[in-house]
């Protein structure tokens, strides 16, 4: 039986160039993911750990939301010690979908 080493597998990332527009739109349509993207847009690269977001979901659901954002080419993650930190791939996403992220970020959230 293999022993656990305490290391997590590095997350897989999809480059925005490989993302269909419907995948990007679906990722941005979820209210929780929209909060994550908006908060990342207002934060410096690699300054926000996954647990630093105030969203009404548990840890497993939060991991799922980050996986969707990675799969849509919106977020890049890396491990720094025990923390997984995040970066919004704004420049890369903007090159693939010009104006989409800015449009989503300037929309006023609804209740």
Automatic annotation (TrEMBL):
Name of this chain's protein: ArsR family transcriptional regulator
CDD domains: HTH_ARSR (cd00090)
Native organism taxonomy: Bacteria, Bacillati, Actinomycetota, Actinomycetes, Kitasatosporales
Native source species: Streptomyces spinosisporus
InterPro entries found in the cross-reference section: ArsR-like_HTH (IPR011991), HTH_ArsR_DNA-bd_dom (IPR001845), WH-like_DNA-bd_sf (IPR036388), WH_DNA-bd_sf (IPR036390)
Signal peptide: none
SUPFAM superfamilies for this protein: Winged helix' DNA-binding domain
Gene3D superfamilies the UniProt entry points to: Winged helix-like DNA-binding domain superfamily/Winged helix DNA-binding domain
Domain HTH arsR-type: 13-108
């Amino acid at each position: 039986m293999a022993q656990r080493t305490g290391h997590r597998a590095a997350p897989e990332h999809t480059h925005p160039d490989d993302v269909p527009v419907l995948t990007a739109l679906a990722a941005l349509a979820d209210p929780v993911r929209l909060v994550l993207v908006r908060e990342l847009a207002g934060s410096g690269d690699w300054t926000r750990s996954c647990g630093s977001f105030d969203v009404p979901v548990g840890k497993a659901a939060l991991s799922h939301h980050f996986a969707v954002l990675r799969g849509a080419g919106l977020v890049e993650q890396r491990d720094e010690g025990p923390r997984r930190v995040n970066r919004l791939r704004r420049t890369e996403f903007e090159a693939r979908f010009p104006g989409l992220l800015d449009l989503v970020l300037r929309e006023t959230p609804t209740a």
